[in-house]
């Protein structure tokens, strides 16, 4: 594994690693592997269209299923997830076939996450910055995690204390989460300034039923 093109050689002998969990076999839980529309170029030969065309999202919006489902919003969620941990390697995503086109995305293969805590790779946020759309529920959660009493680094630090491999993440990586979260919110803010909140923030929230309404439905 110690090759010049892979920056994983020990210094002199210790490496950072990742822990993998395996899903059920494809015979039990069939799933599809789908190319990420914002796949990164993996050669020095040239660049992908999204890397040179700031209006690339207009093309994506015309392609099914990104044209008439929640898939594009889920892609933006995935990009935010990747940006927070610095994962530049999201070339595919997977979905369980049982749930159809509107199923959730499986965020597999995060091994390149939490690499350089001192560098924020803004290009990972291209789906958000180019499409200027985000779920209301996602935005509300991000805004909450930016509040001093619910800061993302504190929440993550406390959560990881329960892990047998604690602390898992070093302190610089935890602090990077707060910095990157603010960059996400800044990106959303610029989108809202340009297009307006009604266009940028997709209302995916549902009003909860009152107990009376719930009982009425059960009685019919």
Walkthrough of the structure:
It is found in: Golgi apparatus. The active site is at residue 89. Mn(2+) binds at residue 109. The structure is a single chain. The termini are far apart. 40% of the residues lie in helices and 6% in strands. A two-stranded antiparallel sheet has the order 1-2. It is mainly alpha-helical. The model is unreliable at 207-220 (pLDDT under 50). The protein has one domain (29-40, 47-204).
Summarize the helices and strands and which ones pair or pack.
Layout: E1 31-35, H1 49-52, H2 56-60, H3 71-85, E2 92-96, H4 126-131, E3 134-135, H5 136-145, H6 152-160, H7 171-195, H8 197-200, E4 201-202, H9 211-219
Parallel strand pairs: 3-4
Antiparallel strand pairs: 1-2
Binding site for ATP: 20-23, 94, 109
InterPro entries: FAM20, FAM20_C
Organism: Tychaedon coryphoeus
Number of helices: 9
Mean of residue pLDDT? Answer: 86
Question: What is the helix fraction of residues, given as a range?
Answer: 25-40%
The secondary structure category is mainly alpha
Q: Please, how many domains?
A: 1
Shape, principal axes of CA atoms? globular
Query: Uncertain runs with pLDDT below 50, 5 residues or more?
Result: 207-220
Give the total of beta strands.
4
Topology as a string of helices (H) and strands (E):
EHHHEHEHHHHEH
Major sheet: 2 strands, antiparallel
The neighbouring-strand order within the major sheet is 1-2
Q: Whole-number radius of gyration?
A: 20 Å
| Strand percent estimate | 5-15%
Please report the distance between the alpha carbons of the first and last residues: 64 Å
């Amino acid at each position: 594994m110690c090759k010049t093109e892979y920056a994983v050689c020990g210094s002199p002998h210790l490496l950072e690693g990742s822990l993998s969990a395996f899903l059920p076999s494809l015979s039990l839980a069939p799933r599809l592997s789908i190319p990420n529309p914002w796949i990164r170029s993996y050669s020095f030969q040239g660049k992908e269209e999204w890397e040179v065309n700031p209006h690339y999202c207009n093309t994506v919006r015309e392609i099914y299923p990104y044209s008439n489902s929640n898939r594009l919003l889920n892609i933006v969620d995935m990009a935010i997830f990747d940006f927070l941990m610095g994962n530049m390697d999201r070339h595919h995503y997977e979905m369980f076939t049982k749930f159809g086109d509107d199923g959730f995305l499986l965020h597999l293969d995060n091994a390149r996450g939490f690499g350089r805590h001192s560098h924020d790779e803004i290009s990972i946020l291209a789906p958000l910055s180019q499409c200027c759309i985000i779920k209301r529920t996602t935005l509300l959660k991000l805004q909450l995690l930016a509040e001093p009493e619910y800061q993302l680094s504190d929440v993550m630090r406390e959560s990881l204390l329960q892990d047998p491999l604690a602390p898992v993440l070093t302190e610089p990586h935890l602090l990077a989460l707060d910095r990157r979260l603010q960059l996400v919110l800044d990106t959303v803010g610029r989108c809202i300034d340009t297009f307006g909140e009604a266009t940028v923030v997709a209302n995916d929230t549902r009003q909860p039923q009152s107990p009376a309404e719930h009982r009425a439905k059960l009685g019919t």
